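ugh ok so i messed up the first submission bc i forgot one of the chains. this is the corrected input, ALL of the components this time, i swear. 746 residues overall. if the numbers dont match what u have on ur side tell me asap before i send this to the collaborators (the ones from the other lab, u know who)
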Amino acid sequence: MMNFMEFMQLATHVGLHHFLLLSAILFSIGLFGLLTKKGLIPLLMCVELMLNAVNINLVAFNQYMPVPDYSGQLMAIFSVAVAASEIAVGVALTFRIYRDRGTVNVDELKELKG
Amino acid sequence: MIDFALYHAWLIPLLPALAFLIIGLGTRQDKKKSAIIGITAIGASFLLSLGVVGAVLTKRLVMAAPFVMKTVWARIGDMELGMGVLIDPLTAMMLVVVTTVALMVNIYSVGYMEHDPGMGRFFAFLSLFAASMLGLVISLNFLQMYIFWEGVGLCSYLLIGFYYYKISAREAAKKAFITTRIGDFGMLLGILLLQITFGTVDFVALKSMLPNYIWVSGTSFLTVIGLLLFIGPIGKSGQFPLHVWLPDAMEGPTPVSALIHAATMVVAGVYLIGRAYFIFAELPIVMSVIAWLGGFTAFFAATIAITQRPFKRILAYSTISQLGYMMLALGVGSLTASMFHLMTHAFFKALMFLCAGAVIEAMHEEADIFKMGGLRHRMPVTFKCMTIGVLAIAGLPPFAGFFSKDAILAAAAEVSFPLYLLASITAFMTAFYMSRLLFVAFFGEVSDDCPAQETNAFMRWPLVVLAVLSVVSGAWGHFAGFSDWVFYGVHEEEAINWTIAGSSIVLSLFAMWLAYQIYVEKRWSSHQIARRLGVLYDLSFHAYYIDEIYAFIRELTVDKAGRLAYWIDTHIVDGVVHGLGRMTRGLSVLLALPQNGDAQRYVAFFYTGVIALVAYSLFYAVKILSVTGGAF
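and heres the new structure output, hopefully the right one now
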C-alpha cells in the first residue's frame, strides 16, 4: 500500500513516464482528429499535433538518457523545420484546392486523377 | 595418276560440290558458264573415278581389305565421329557408274534445258545431287552416309520441284521428300541403335566387331537393327509400300528423272545394303524379308507398268520393278548379282529416260505413248537407242540386262523356287511392257500433226554413249570377272546356267512376240483384252489405288488428329491463357475496391496496420520474456 508521501512524490515529480504519457495523449488526439475532421486545415493541424507528440518523445528520451548526448534534440529541431515547410506546402495546396474546387472537405476530394 | 586418284578420292564428291557453290553463288544467270562449270566438275570426277578403278585393279584392293582414309570430324566426349574415304571394288564400281551417268546427263541437259531460263540453277542442283551421291558412295561410316543420304533426298526434292510454278511438280517434290523421310527415320533409328550397341558406326570397325557380338549375344537384337536399317532403303529405293513417290518424281525435268532413276537416288538404298552387307548377311530373317519384299515389289510394279500410258510413268514403274530385282538378289545372298544389275540397269535406264526426254520434247510435252506412233521414221537415232535399252532390260543376249538378270535369276533359283518363279514372271512382264512401249511409240504410222524431229547433238551423243554401255557393260562385266571383284564372303565362280538363261530368253522373246502381235499386227484388240480383264485392269491402271488408300488413311488419322489437336489448342491451351487473363482482371476489380480516394479511410487502414504490427511485436516480446525469464 502506497503511503501518502509516496503518492505525492509520484504525482509531483515529473519523470519520463509523464512525458511519454503526454506524447501518447497528444498523438491520440491528433489521430482522432485526423480520422474524424473533414476540413483540410483541421486535418493539417492534427498532423501537426502528431508530429509534435513525436518531438516530445525525442526530447524526453534525450533528456533521460544516461550519457550526455544531443541527438534527440537535434532530431526534434530538424523535425520542427521539416514540419514547418510541410505545413507551408500543405496550406498552399489547400488554398489552391479551395480556389479550384470551392471546397476543402475531404469527403468531396475523392477523385484520384486531375 | 592412279595414286593421285586413290589418295585424292575425296575430291570426287568435292568437285561437284564446289561447282554447286560457284554456279549457285556466281554464274547462275549465265547459262553457258554454268553448264561448262558443271560439266567440267563432273568430268574431272569421272576421270578421278577411272583413276580409282585403276588403283583398285593395280593395287589389288579387295572387298575384305578396303583402302581407308580417315579424319576426325567431331569429338563428343569419348565418341569420335569420323569422316573419310573407303575405297573397295564396290565403291570404285559405284563411282564410275554414278559419274558416267551424271556426266551424260549433264551433257544431255545442255541440249534439253537450252530454252529454260533456270538452266544455271538446274546445273547447280545437278552438281549438288552428284556430289551428295558420290559422298554417299565413298562414306566410311553410317553417319557420313546418312548425311549424304539426306543430301540426296534434299536434291531430289529441289530437282523434282524444279518447275516450282507447276502445282503438280511442287506436290510431287513434297511427296518424294516426305515419303523418303519416313524411311530415313527408320534408318536413323537403326544407326543410333548400332552406335548404342557397338559404340561405333564405322563400317570397318563394325565388321570386325560383329562376329564376336553375334557369338556372345545372338542375332535377335541385330535383327531389329537390320529391319530398321532396311526401312531406309525401302523409302529411298522405292520398295513397296513406300514406292509411291517414284512415279510422281517424273514431274522434274527428264534428265533429272534419268539421274534419279538410274544412278543417284534410288540405287542409294541398294548400295546401303550392299555396303552394310556384312550385317545383313548374318541375319536370315532380314534377308528373307529383303528377298520377298524385293520380289514382291518387282512383280507388283511390273503389273502396274503393263497398263500405264505416259512414257515416263512406264519407265518409272519399270525402275521400281528393277530395284525390286536388286533387292531380291541381295536378299538371296548375291551381292555380286545385285551390284551387277545395279550397274547395267543404271546404264540402260538412264539411256531410256534420256530417250524419253528426247521423245517428249520432240512431241512438245506430249507424254501419252498412244498419241505417239511411227517415231522411228522421225527420230532414227533415238529409236535405235531406245531399242537397245528395251532389249537390254528385256534380258536378251548379248545386251547388258541379260547377264545381270541371269545372275539374279540363278541366285534366286539356288535359294528358293517360288522367288525364282516370281522373278521369271516379272521378267516376262518386263519384256512385254517394254516392247509395248517401244511398239506403240515408235512403230505404226506417223500421224500428220506429229511435230517430232531428231534432237540436237548435245542430246544425241549421250544417248549413243549410254547405248554402247548398255550393250557392252553386261558382257564385259561377265567375262572380265565382275564376280571376282565385287562379292561378299566366299567368292563363287559364276557360269551361265543355260537352263535358267535359256528359259528366260524364251520367255522374253515370247513376251515381245505377244506385244508385237497385239500392238503392231493388232491381231488381238488391246481394248478387248482390257475389258476382258475387268477389275484386274482397273487395279493395275490405277496402281492398285495405293495413293487413294494413303489419302484415305491420312484423312482417317492425320486429319482427325489435327482436328483434335486444334480443339485442344482452342479450348484447353487458349482456355488457360484466357482464364489467366480473366482471373487477373477479376482480382484487380476486387483490389481496386479499397482504393476509392477517401484519404481518411487510407489513414484508418494505415493505423490499423501499425497497431496490428505493434500488437504482434508486443505479443512476441512478452512470449520471449516469459521463456527467458525476463531477460532478452
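quick check: The mean pLDDT of chain B is 85. that seems consistent at least. DSSP finds 26 helices and two strands in chain B.
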